[in-house]
Structures are given as structure tokens and as C-alpha cells.
Amino acid sequence: MIELAGRISEDFINEVRDSVNIVDVISQYVSLEKRGKDYVGLCPFHQEKTPSFSVNPEKQFFYCFGCHRGGNVYKFIMEKEEVTFPESVERVAEFANIPMPQEYQEQPVKLNPLMQMHQDAADFYQQILLTTKIGERGLNYARQRELDDELLKHFKIGYAPDRRDLLLTYLKEQGYTDEQLAESGLFVQTQDGRLFDRFRDRLMFPMSDETGHPVAFSGRRISDNPDEPKYINSPETSIFNKSDLLFHFSEAKKHARKEGHLVLFEGHMDVISAYKSGIKTGIASMGTSLTQQQVYMIRRITRQVVINYDGDDPGIHAAERAVGLFKQAGSFDLGIVILPDKLDPDEYVKQYGAESYQAAITGAISTTDFFLLRLKKKYNLNNEREQVAYLSEAVQEIATLQNPVEQDLYVGRLAKETGVSLDALKMNLSRARRRQRRIDEHTSAAEPAVLPPAPVQEQQPVTRATRAQQRLLYAYIYSDEAREYLLLNGFVFPSPQYERLAKLWLNYIETHENVSLSGFLDFIPEELQSIIVSTDMMEIPGEITLEELEAQVRVLNLCKIDDEIGQHMQAIADARRRNDQTAILRETQAILQLRQLKLQEEEAVSDRKKASHEQ
Ligand SMILES: [Zn+2]
């Protein structure tokens, strides 16, 4: 990474890093909870159900105890956004509102060709909509749908005129190859291989990935021609996968932290209507029902989700299905909004206004309420038999609640509503609870439930030698005295990586005035960063005594002796095969000497232990 310092100055890199809090940056991607002095959450790099991802605000590090990824804020963005180091600095600078140095700005971020093509197409369509004569038809339609300029710009909406090769010609002029154009999904291909614009006479809604780059489009029909489908979506391509894209996700997650929740809609038009009413945390799945991948994307941002699907029957069924998916993934706090008269958000806002709509979102009901409401509609409560069935199903649902206070509340309400005695219902409830517990035990035994095991980074077992080296490296970094001692005694780390880190640290502190571990990370090779971070995240006592230093060095000596003994054993085995008696004798003597040495070292360690116990 040192060679990159030439492009962006080290001062700038430090300035940007020091002006953000890593917790704020990571919170844009991960829902973090404070635990002790750290923040913890679900790792964005491997799929997991219990948090092993930890962010330390004091050291400005993150570290995952599951997949062992770790580093400072730049490393996080590099891994998460899959960008280079300078790009990562640029992103963090943007977050910190610090303009990039002039000479760097001239180098635009390089997207892959298909993504760049989608960016170009989105810009092209929007320019047509906002500034051209041919786009007026689209603009009139947008105005009819009450999409003002601010909305058009925020959602990057454009217009594809009724031409067969407008986009095609434009993109060819930009230098895209026929092959790239053919695989982009932006065109349809005839049997003889010719390409035509897929979207014609349509209002164009770009679908962006998690970083806000358009990867697909949805085109809304403008004409009244019922033979044309109302919406056409891009087919799946190498950059667009329906099941892991959420409309408006990159924008909504920026607001999710402040608002405390995301609002899930059925379609992208709902997201736009909600945005118009001041709800900026809206997202929607794209031309599919909600998928598990999307649920996990959402969970990385927040556990608080409000579901606002259409109030008609398909909408309610879709909402029920979504609730099931969220419950399966676990630990969500869900709210459901059912708008009256089977209205969708757009219709509701038109009829009742933005404020009323916001109130509806704030007043979202719990999933239990939602279930009970649905249940009540299923049965004729004037018929006694049906009432019994209703109560039995309701009590079963209430039994799935974890919180006994909640259970009491719902049972009480049920008793009041139906006139059935509270005692009878409570008896039913405890029976249902016993059954539910059995089910819970059964399902938790049948784990792992939803996701395939995460690819875990190559991981070396933490050996005694590794622990000793970590401790010594920690001492080397934090204590001038310890470093002096190790240097004076000519200590060399057995592992070349640790030795290299020690040398780099010496070099770093000699050449830098403001020394920080987080700054150090930017100047060492990537593969060494996680050693530093895992060393630093270990809960080890900060103070290092001379005795401990000596003891740790001894541990390493012992490990080294063990290694050497192993090598001589191997040599003996070889010599036996050759029947080389002299070599056997020589190796045996060497082993005996090493064993003697080992014994002395071990005695020294145990003497030290005794001495420290007696103190
Ligand atoms: Zn991880």
C-alpha cells in the first residue's frame, strides 16, 4: 500500500481517517449494538446468526471472531465495497465531507463495463426526460403521476422514447462492444443477432445495487395500450440478481439509523410515494416476492422493519409470507401496516395526505395483532363451533410469543373480546406453551436452519507459539521498554510475518510523528493487517513485566526446541531406512541434548511461576 501514498498524500489519508468514527461508518452497513466498550453486530462478510463482529471505537478497529477479518475503516470499506485502497479513502472522505485533493479528482472511479454502461444509460434516459423535446411525453406523464423534479432526480428516473435503437446508437458511440451490449440486458436480440432497445416509450426507473450504482431498470408503460405489459424489468445479468437486490436500499440505509427502521413495500412505486410523504427509509423487492437473501441484507442494517404491502388480498398474503421469512431468520422487531379500503400507499397518500400516512407507519401493529385480525376474518364468531376454533388458533399463536407479559396481555384482550373466562384461556395457553416448547426444542435441534455454512477464511489454529508471539508483538508495539529489551537481546520472532511486522513498526515509529496503530495499518501489506488487529483485539492485560517478557520468550524457545527435536526424529527415521548407524547415533545425541535443554527451560519457567505465586 505504500506505493499508493504517492497518489494520495499520507497527511490526507490520516486526516480523513481521524475525522470519522469507524462506528458511524460501519453502522451504515451493519446494525451495531453497544456491548461494554465495543460495538457488536452480525458480520457483513460471513453469514451468521449470533454476532461475532466487533468494532472498537477506542482503537478504531473492527474484527470478526468468526472469519478473522479485521482492520481500520479503510480496510472495512475495501472489503465491503470491493474497492481499492484509494477508492476506499475516497468513500470515507465523502462520508466525512472532505473534498478529495485536486490531483486525485481527475481520476474517476472505474466501474466494470456493464455497470458503467448502466450508469451511462441511466444518465442518458434522465437527460432525455429532463432536457429534450422528445422527452416531453415522458415528462408530462411524470407530472401526471405527481413526480416532481426532486423525486425524478433522487430516484434517477428517466425516459426511453419510442425508438428502436436510440440507446443502442448512444452506447455504441461510447465505445461499448457488441458483446458487452448483448449481455447487458438493455437490448433484445433478434434471431439473426441484431440488437434493439428493450425499453421503448417507458418511464425508466433504475434499480441500484447496495452501493447505489444502477444495475437494472424497470420501465413503466406510458401508453394506454393494454397489450403492452405495464412494467418491463431487465432480465438477470452478471451484475443483476433479482433475489439480492432491494430497490432504494443504498439510500434507505443511510436514513435507517436515524429513523430506527426500514419500511418494506411491495413495489418501487410505493417506495417513491412514501418518499414523497417524507418516509425516506422505504425499500422494495424487485419483481419477485421477498427472498431470504434480502431478509439477511435488511438484518445487517436494522432489526426494526415495518411491512407495508398493499391492502388487497394478494398484498396481505405476501405480507404473511414476508412475516414468515423474517421470523425464520429470527430476532426481528416487525410492524405491519394495513391501509384501509385495500389501498396501496400511493392511493392512500392521495386520499388522506402525507401526514396521515406517516401516522399509519408510526402506528404499525404487531405481527400478533396482524395475525389475530386475519384470523377473526376467517371465522364466523357468531357460530359457537367456529368461535372455539378461532380461540384455539389464537391461543396457539400467542403461545409462540417469548415474552410472558405480552402473552398475558393478548389473552386478556381475547377474554374480553369473546366473553370466555380468563382462567379457561390461561389453561389453554399453558397447554399450548408446553407444546410450543417441544416444537422449539425440536427445531433448534434440527439446526442449521436457513443458510449454508459461510465460507470461512483460511484459519490457523492458535497455538501456544502463536499466542506467545501475539503477546510479544503487543509488547513490542505498546511498550518502549519491552521493545528495547527484545532488541537488546537480539530477539527474533520465529514466524517471518511477525518478524516483518516488528521491523515495519520500528520503521513506522521512526518516520512518523503522530504514531497510531490505526495509521500503521495503512502502511503495511494487507495480509499482515489481520495479525495486528487480532493481536490487538485479544483481551490481554495491558501491563507487561520483564518477567512476563522472559517467560514468553521461553515459551517460544521451548516451541523451537520441540520443532528441532521433531526434525532430528525425522532424520533418525531416514537414517534407519538407509541403515546408517553413525547418523542414527549422531541424531540421537542431538535429541538428548535438546531434551536436556528443554528440561532446563521448563524448570526455569516453573521456578518463575513459583516465585510469582509466593510473592
Ligand atoms: Zn465474519
- Sheet-strand content, in percent, reads 5-15%
Share of helix among residues?
55-70%
- What is the typical, i.e. mean, pLDDT? 85
Mass-distribution shape: globular
Structural class of the helix and strand makeup? alpha+beta
Radius of gyration in whole Å, from Cα?
32 Å
Number of strands: 16
Give the number of helices.
Answer: 27
Tell me the domain tally: 5
Attached small molecules:
zinc ion
Main sheet: strand order: 1-2-3-4-5
> How many angstroms separate the termini?
48 Å
Taking the sheet with the most strands, its summary is: 5 strands, antiparallel
Low-confidence parts: 1-6, 444-460
Subunit structure: Monomer. Interacts with DnaB.
Domain Toprim: 260-344
Catalytic activity: ssDNA + n NTP = ssDNA/pppN(pN)n-1 hybrid + (n-1) diphosphate
Zinc finger (CHC2-type): 43-67
What's this entry about, in short?
With 615 residues, the protein is of the alpha+beta class. It is 56% helix and 10% strand.
What is the topological layout?
Blueprint: H1 10-19, H2 22-27, E1 33-35, E2 38-41, E3 53-56, E4 61-64, E5 70-71, H3 73-81, H4 85-95, H5 102-105, H6 113-131, H7 136-144, H8 149-154, E6 158-160, H9 166-173, H10 178-182, E7 187-189, E8 195-197, E9 202-208, E10 214-221, E11 231-233, E12 246-247, H11 249-259, E13 262-265, H12 268-276, E14 282-285, H13 292-301, E15 304-308, H14 313-329, E16 333-336, H15 345-352, H16 354-362, H17 367-378, H18 384-399, H19 404-418, H20 422-445, H21 464-478, H22 480-488, H23 496-511, H24 517-521, H25 526-537, H26 546-578, H27 581-614
Helix pairs in contact: 3-4, 6-7, 15-16, 17-18, 18-19, 18-20, 19-20, 21-22, 21-23, 21-25, 21-26, 26-27
Bound molecules: zinc ion (ZN).
Residues 43, 45-46, 53, 64, 66-67, 69 line the site of zinc ion.
Organism: Lactobacillus nasalidis
Pfam families: DnaB_bind, DNAG_N, Toprim_2, Zn_ribbon_DnaG
Keywords: DNA replication, DNA-binding, DNA-directed RNA polymerase, Magnesium, Metal-binding, Nucleotidyltransferase, Primosome, Transcription, Transferase, Zinc, Zinc-finger
